[in-house]
Design goal:
- The protein is an alpha+beta fold.
- It has two domains: about 1-150, Fructose-1,6-Bisphosphatase, subunit A, domain 1 (Fructose-1,6-Bisphosphatase, Chain A, domain 1, 2-Layer Sandwich), CATH 3.30.540; about 160-255, 3-Layer(aba) Sandwich (D-Maltodextrin-Binding Protein, domain 2).
- Helices cover about 30% and strands about 30% of the residues.
- It has seven helices and 14 strands.
- The protein has helices spanning about 1-25, 45-60, 70-75, 95-100, 170-180, 195-200, 215-225; strands at about 35, 40-45, 65-70, 85-90, 105-110, 115-125, 130-135, 135-140, 150, 160-165, 185-190, 205-210, 230-235, 250-255.
- The strands form four sheets. A seven-stranded mixed beta sheet has the order 3-4-5-6-7-8-9, sandwiched between helices.
- Helix 1 runs antiparallel to helix 2.
Amino acid sequence: MTSDRKALLDGISDIARQAGAAIMAIYATDFDARTKDDNSPVTDADEAAEALIVSALRRLAPDIPVVAEEAAAAGNIPDVGDGPFWLVDPLDGTKEFLNRNGEFTVNIALIEGRRPVLGVVLAPALGTLYSGLVGTGAWRAVDEGGAEPIAVREPPADGLTVIASRRHGDPAEIQQFLQGRPIAEMANAGSSLKFCKVAAGEADLYPRFGRTMEWDTGAGQAVLEAAGGLVTETDGTPFAYAKNAIFENPHFVAWGGLRP
């Protein structure tokens, strides 16, 4: 099973890179954004990347259903039950894409038993691919270089680095959650890069007190937990998937070497 999953991980890494190339082709143009029913932006890059990813996943693993952000927004959500399914965010951080700051990602995860078991997070503008196979390991590949192992770090003696969303969440709730913990630095990043920075030992904690959907978190959680981290609800409850009909998440905390 591990070899089968490694083959799937390699397959979705290739798919993510193809989607990243499609996104970057549009990034280089004078593209426009539209507004979805939930008031979030969408671009041609979101739609082109999702079409490419979904088609490729169906060729790679025809029996595994795909839950993808733009299809879900249009009401096209398969009945996944308790079975395995793919979670896809073709362009996580559309606002980062619009602001051209490079902090947007392609997220692909495989969910089994309501938990992420493998995933990839590609930051195409940064040339960086994070991948994780839970129970085996996590890796980071930069540009055309080989994949190097990554792992969470133990909490530093001089205090924690906490990473948070640039645009979402309640700062007061975050400060209340952090009360009593030694904090050395507060940092920000866009998209699923926050999970990846914790996974790579560049941050220790990512509390999220704002709305997210499962496709926002599945791939990042897979990478983080493969690197030795953990994602829980804010009360320490395990963070599960296929929780409700619209795949909406509760608030959560992503932990590096620290534990609830």
